[in-house]
Amino acid sequence: MLLATSLFLTGCNSSALSSNEDSDGTSDERTSYSRLYGYLYWEYGLPISDGGRRPDSWITDEMVDNPDLIIQTGYYNLRFAADELALTGFDASEGSDYLSALHEDVSEFTAADLHIEIDANGVTYTAQYAEVEDSDSGDFQMGLIEQGQYVQRFDHTGLVFEDADGNELDLSADDHYFEITAWPDQVVFTLDLTNFEDVSRSQITITSPDGVIHEAEADTNKVNLAIAPASDETLPELDPELYVTEAYNVSDDSDFDDVSFDADQHAFFFDLPAWTVSYGSGVDNTYKELQFELTNPTDEEMNIPVVFNLNKFSNITGTVMTLVEEDGRPSGYAVQVSKNWHGTSGTRNHVGSWHTGSAMIPVEANSSRTLKLRVIYGYWDSVGTASHSHLSLIGYSDKAWQWDESAIGSWGESMTFSPVSCIGSAFMDDIRPSFTTPKNGTSTDHGWTENVGGGEYMVYFDENGDFRWPKKLKTAYQWIGPNMTQIYYSGYSDDDAIRFTYGSHLVRSNDYHRRFQQYNYEVLENIEPTRFVYYQMAADYYMSAVFDDYYRGDANGVMESHIGEEQGGNEYLASYAFNDSWLAIADLSGTSDTARSYRGLIWRNSQVNGEDAELYMHNYGRTWGSDTILFGFGSDSTTPTLTAGTEISGVIEYVMPAQSASEYWGSDTAFSERLATYTTPWNAVHDEYAYNDMTVTATNATVENSYPIIVEPLTEPVDVQLTIPASKGIGHIPIVLSSATAGQALYAQIYNDGEWISAVENDDVFESHAYYQGYFNADGTMDYVFNIIRPANMAFDELMLVRIYSQ
Q1: How far apart are CA 699 and CA 618, in angstroms?
Q2: pLDDT value at 560 more than 70
Q3: From the centroid of its chain, how far is CA 621?
Q4: Residue 167 pLDDT > 50, yes or no?
C-alpha cells in the first residue's frame, strides 16, 4: 500500500514496540498501549436492502444475505453473524498496532457457541435467530452506539425467542436489546429486557472454541457477561475503590468521588460535573480538568478501562478530551469521544443526549498512575479546536449505521461522514463553514451555519455500469484533536478490485474551515470502469449547494471564470488539468439557507506508482434533485483502464472562507483585513493556495512536508528551528513534530522584534502546555502538533523563524 509514502500518515511504519527503556521508565506502558485498539466492520458491506437515495436495485445480494460483523482488536477477533445470532469467530490474537491493523485482514475464524435464554410467564424461551431487517417495516434492527479506538458498541433488537415447542414469544424491538461492547482486551455481552416486565430469569452462555464455558445468569430481566477472549476467562465485577484511588476536580478545587463500576461496559464510570462554558469576546482556553489516580492492586499488568460521562450537552458538537500528565504535558494516550443528540431519552436505549469519553490505561502490577483529563469546549488557547469523532444516529433513523462528525469549535458541525453511505448516500455529507454568520438569524456568531454538502472519495462504476459499494470498511481515529485530526477510512470495493484508504485532517484555526483530504488506491485486479474518479465534490445523491459561477486558477490568479454555464445532463461536460491549481465555487445557498462562504478545492499532491502525476478535474452535470455540476478529480479519463498493481495517491485541500468581512466574526485580524480588500469570489482561495504553498527549511530536523509542516527531530532533547519564507504562511500553520521522543515538555517560540517570544495567544498556557497535542506511535515515540500564526506586528514580507524545544 501507499501508506509508507503517504504525506500525512505519520507513525505508519512503526513496528511492534520494543522493550527499550526511555527516560521516564514507562516503556512497558507503551508496549501494552500499542495493542489497545479495536475495529468494527461489516465483512460484506452494510446489510440494508434500502438503497436510500440510491436505487434499491443497486443493493447486492451478498451485502444483504451475509450480515457478518467483525470485531478486530489487539488481543482477539470476533465475528458475529447477525442473522444466525451466532459467534462464528472467537479467537485470541497477537495484534500489531492501531495503524498497522488498518490494513491487516482477519480471514480465519473459529466458532464459539452462543446461547441466550429467558424465562417469561413461567415458560423458557431460547433466542433461535434474529431478523437484521424487520420483516414488516423493513427497519434496520441494529444500532451503532459507539465506535472509536477503544470501544466498539452496538445492539440488536431483532432477536426471535421460541419455546421448546417452537412457539414464538411476542416481543417487540423496543422490548429487548442484545448488546455487545468490545474493548481491546475484553468484551461484554448484555441482554436487556427491562421494558418487558414478564421476564423472571435471563441467561447468556458462551462456550469458547477450547470448550471453556462462560455463563452469566440473573433472576431479573437483564444480565451481563464479560469475557477476556485472549485468556478465555470470565471477568468479575470490580470494586472502584480499589482501582480509582484518587480523583480531584481541578477546575473548582474540590474532591471528586462520583465513580462507579458500570457492568454494561465493564469499566469505571466517572460521572463528571455539569461543566459549562460561554463564548464571547476575549475567549481564552475553555477547558476543565479532572485529576485522577488509577491503581492496579493485582500482581499482573492490567489495562484499566475508564469512561468519563459529561452531563452538559450544549457544547456537544466539537468537545475534545485529552489525557495529560500532572504538569500538563501530553500523556500520549487518546480519549475516544462518543455522543448522541437524537431523539427523546427513554424511548429506546441510548436515545437522546449523552456524551462520553473512553480510554484504556495500562498500569503496572501493584502500582499507580496519575493523569489529568482535559475536557476542551471549543477553544484551545483562544483558537477554535479541531475535532472528529463518531456520532450515534440511534433515535434519528432506523436505517442507519456509522456517522462521524468533525467540527471547528463546539458550536456546530463542519463536516460529517457516512462511510457506508447509509443516510446521506454519500461519504461526505453535511459540510458547513466556520466563523461565519449563523443560519438562524438570531445571533451573529457561535452558531450552526448553512449546509453545502456532500462529497465522495472514490466514485467507481464497473465495466457493466454497476455501482461498487465499500466493504470491510474500518475507521482509525488516530488523532481526534484539538490541534489537528488524523482519521483514516480503509476497505475494499465489493468486487475486490480496489483497496482504498482515505484520510481527513482538519486543523485548528480562527479564520475558516480548512482540512486536507487524502486518498490512496491499490488496484488489485485489471479493470475497465465505465466511471471512475478519485475524489468528488459534491455527491451524486447529495448536493445541497446552489451556485451559478465557479473559477479555476493558479498562483498567479484566475485562469478561467465560468459564469452561468450549463448544468445537469447526467454526463461529463468538460475536463481540465488541475496540478498546481485551485477551484473556487461561488455558492449562493445551501439547503435553502443563504450561503455566507465560498468553497475552495486546492491541489496539493498527486502520484501514480510513487511518481508525480497529472490530476484532472472533470465536471459532471447532474440532474437528480436539480441541475448542478459535480467536480470530480482523477486521471485524464473518467473511463480509465486500470492495471493490477497500480498505486494512486493524492491530497486535496478543502477550504471555506467567508464571502465578506461582514459575514466573518473570527479573530484572525490578518484574514479580516485581507477579506475587506477582496473583490471577487476567488481571492481567498487563491491566497490560501499561493501563500501556503511554501518551502520550509529546518535546523536539527528533517522536513518531511512543507504544508502542513511535518518535521522529524534529529536531536534529543528537541531543539528544532523552522524558517518560513517571507510572504508565506497565513492562518494558524499546522506544524507536526513526527516520531519525537515521548514524554517531553515542549515549548514553541517565534522570533519577533529581535527576541524569542512564546508562540501562544495567552501567556498562562505556555508552562501548562495547554496549546498543543501529542499522541503515541506504536514504537513508543510521539507525534506532537502545534498551530503557529504570524504575530500581528510582524510584516508579511519578513521571514518567520519558529523554534520548538524541550527542557
Answers
A1: 42
A2: yes
A3: 31
A4: yes
* Strand (E) or helix (H) holding 179: strand 177-182
Q: Tell me the residue type at 476.
A: A
CA gap 40, 37 in Å, rounded: 11
CA dist 104 and 96 (Å) reads 9
Residue-level pLDDT at 763: 92
Of 254, 252, 270, the closest CA to residue 262 belongs to: 270
Cell numbers placing 623: 440532474
CA–CA dist 336, 267 (Å, integer)? 14
C-alpha–C-alpha distance, residues 794 and 807, integer Å: 27
343: left (phi over 0), alpha (psi -120 to 50) or beta: left
**Structure letter (DSSP) for residue 278:** -
First to last CA, the chain: 38
Q: Which three cell numbers stand for residue 507?
A: 486543523
Residue 191 to residue 201: CA distance in whole angstroms: 11
CA-to-CA distance for 321 and 630, rounded, in angstroms? 36
Contact 752, 793 (CB under 8 A): yes
Confidence of residue 243 (pLDDT cuts 50, 70, 90): very high
What radius of gyration, in Å, describes the C-alpha atoms of the chain?
Answer: 26
Name the grid cell of 413. 458541525
pLDDT band at residue 68 using 50, 70 and 90 as cut-offs = very high
Contacts of 253 (CB under 8 A, 6+ apart): none
Query: Alpha-carbon distance 51 to 404, whole Å?
Result: 20
Q: How far is the C-alpha of 774 from the C-alpha of 795, rounded, in Å?
A: 31
* Best CA proximity match to 72, nearest among 44, 47, 92, 46: 92
Alpha carbon distance 535, 615 (integer Å): 11
Preceding omega of 538 cis (within 30 degrees of 0): yes
Question: What does each C-alpha distance from 457 to 188, 200, 418, 419, 613 come to in angstroms?
Answer: 35, 51, 12, 10, 18
User: pLDDT tens, 394-453?
Assistant: 999 988 999 999 999 999 999 999 999 888 899 999 999 999 999 987 788 999 999 999
CA distance linking residue 777 with residue 478, whole number of Å: 9
pLDDT tens digit string along 659-715? 999 999 999 999 999 999 999 999 999 999 999 999 999 999 999 999 999 999 999
Mean pLDDT of the 784-801 span: 97
Between CA 177 and CA 157 the distance in angstroms is 5
CB 141 within 8 A of CB 171: no
Q: What cell does 144 get?
A: 451503532
401 grid coordinates = 449505521
Which cell numbers in the block locate residue 21?
A: 527503556
User: Taking a C-beta distance cutoff of 8 angstroms, is the pair 214, 225 a contact?
Assistant: yes
Kind plus residue range of the DSSP H or E element containing 32: helix 27-33
Query: Which residues sit opposite 323 in a β-bridge?
Result: 373
| Of 401, 407, 470, nearest in space to 656 by CA | 407
SS3 100: helix
Greatest Cα-to-Cα distance within the chain, rounded to the nearest angstrom: 88
Grid cell at residue 325: 500528565
E-only strand ranges, 591-729: 593-594, 599-608, 611-612, 616-622, 628-634, 647-656, 697-699, 701-706, 709-713, 719-724
Q: How far apart are CA 598 and CA 655, in angstroms?
A: 8
**Inter-residue contact 708 to 505 (CB < 8 Å):** yes
pLDDT tens digits, residue range 92-147?
999 999 999 999 999 999 999 999 999 999 999 999 999 999 999 999 999 999 99
Phi/psi at 229 (5° precision): -60, -35
pLDDT in tens, 500-551: 999 999 999 999 999 999 999 999 999 999 999 999 999 999 989 999 999 9
3-class SS of residue 161: strand
Beta strand 86-92 pairing with 76-81: antiparallel
Task: Using pLDDT thresholds of 50, 70 and 90, give the confidence band for residue 31.
Answer: low
